[in-house]
Fold this protein.
Amino acid sequence: NNKRNMKELLKKVINGEINNAQIQMSPISHIEDLLEELGINTNDNELESNGWQVDFWIKYEEKYQLSGSLYYGGFTFTKL
């Protein structure tokens, strides 16, 4: 199950097992739902984006960052 696999990758970053994880492109709201299930506050996030390919960076709790391109994909979840 893709959702379960993504949640496991997010959990590994949050627990510090890995520094970052490449995750499948999916609606950001779905990723934020998984982060909420894992105890991360997604309500007070800081979103930055640019350009036609919509590169984006979203910081959560000043500890984690979701980044990628809404045009090309390549989402990464990182512990800062």
About this structure: The mean pLDDT is 93. The helical segments are 2-14, 28-37.
